[in-house]
Write a structure and sequence with these properties.
Elements: E1 2-7, E2 19-20, E3 25-28, E4 31-35, H1 37-42, H2 46-51, H3 55-64, E5 73-78, E6 85-86, H4 101-119, H5 121-131, H6 137-148, E7 154-155, E8 166-177, E9 180-183, E10 188-193, E11 198-204, H7 210-213, H8 218-234, H9 238-253, E12 257-260, H10 266-270, H11 278-287, E13 296-298, E14 306-307, E15 314-316, E16 321-324, E17 329-331, E18 337-342, E19 348-349, E20 353-358
Antiparallel strand pairs: 1-11, 1-20, 2-6, 3-4, 4-5, 7-11, 8-9, 8-10, 8-18, 12-20, 13-17, 14-15, 15-16, 18-19
Amino acid sequence: MEYTVTVLTPLVITSGKKIYLDIDFVVEKGRVFIFHWNKLINSQNKETFISDFSLNKLVKLFEHQRLSWNHLVSYKLESSYKPANILPFVKNPFSKPYLPGSTLKGKLRTLYLLFQLHNQDKLKNQLLSNLKKLTSNTQLKILEEEFIKNLDVSVSDSLPVDINKLLLLPTKVCSIKERGAEFKPFTIYVEAVAAGTTFSGYFKSRKVSWKALLPKFSFIIKNIIKREIDFFTLGNYHKLVQWYEELLKKVDEQSDFYLQLGWGEGFAGKTLFSLLPVNTQAKLQKLFRIGKRPLIWHRDCGKQVIPIKGKNLYNCPFCNRKNIEFTEVQYSPFPKTRKLLLTPSEEYLPPGWIKLSLF
């Protein structure tokens, strides 16, 4: 069986490292030139070059052989930005971007487990019982493997796509505050594969008919989208609320399967956390030191309230109201941040939304 992945919003799958200005790349005249140091090493005697390497030797090499940084360029990106560092997209040995099969497989494993937990109360109760006994991250990994060990699926890496599909995009971290959505004061620069790009590869499963199973996952994707709508509604970010509402219509109306993949998907998209009871979530947050103590806001004035000890009631010092009911307050969401890419059309969008097809 073959699969195709069509990119809907710029896709970011990082290689796990950063590259740095004036070491790994330079910026000139609206272009970013990324170096491939192996090109220089391969032109020399590798053994002596590496064993006797020094900055002084490198300078002399450039002077004597009349080399310039152009001799090191692996590829270039059109960009008006001059970042100090970049998170590069994963590439094959020939510097071609590709979609790792493990990334897609990992996402499908999570969706499969969510689906099974939703439909099997016995399995869900077993998982919750085991979670209550957890004391370490190692135990959590063992538990995860136990629940998905019988999942039979093999996903190949995709065929590479052309390097001109890569964009250099700034990313902002959006956080929900009392007064709405705010961007953190820093910018992360990433390589992203452009919307409209198609990846293709091979998909194999002997026990499970994934082509028949994928449509059954749609309710999970809808819940994820609704969670994002709630998040950006809370932050008064109306443009993204509208964007997610349009995406929700596509999921409802079309037979294609949509999901979010890769960097920027975040904690909620890669875990079962949101499916768990609130008290279990609290235990896991404490055990693994995830996030901060949630803030509780008064819906009327948007300010933080103070819980009344021993009661499910709250006082609001800002508007001087006392004994406020639980229905009148709003918990800050967890996770409380989202990564958003500034696209070439000058709009902020969540990274990594794709359309998956099997045939």
